Amino acid sequence: MKKKRTRPFMEKSTEIELQQRKRRRQVPFQGHINPTVQLANIIDDRGFSVTIIHTHFNSPNPSDYPHLTFHLIPDGLLKSHASSTDVIIALIQLLNINCVTPFQDCLSRLLLEVYEEPIIAKL
């Protein structure tokens, strides 16, 4: 006879699932940038202004999207880091560490500006 799982197991399972979700974020690789810009185009077509905060690493070309606003933040990567795609996990960790403060500073500056339009944020 199988023993029923108790509630603590379910709570632990849900907690692990939530922790895994928290760690998902957008990374600046081509397969992630293109869909983001496509979504930005759709949002722009609906009448909202869109601002994209990005780093030098694999950055989109702002002149290709004159209707979007781009803000460049430093990523703190050396040329050797950016060209070393064989250690992708280390590269992502470096970006996560190096970009926190520049991203927060840029976002703070943007939020201090006076907007007359609704703001939609995708983090």
TrEMBL record:
Domain of life: Eukaryota
Molecular function as annotated in GO: transferase activity
Keywords tagged on the record: Transferase
Coiled-coil annotated residue ranges, if any: none
Similarity-based family: Belongs to the UDP-glycosyltransferase family.
Protein name: UDP-glycosyltransferase 76B1
Gene of this entry: UGT76B1_6
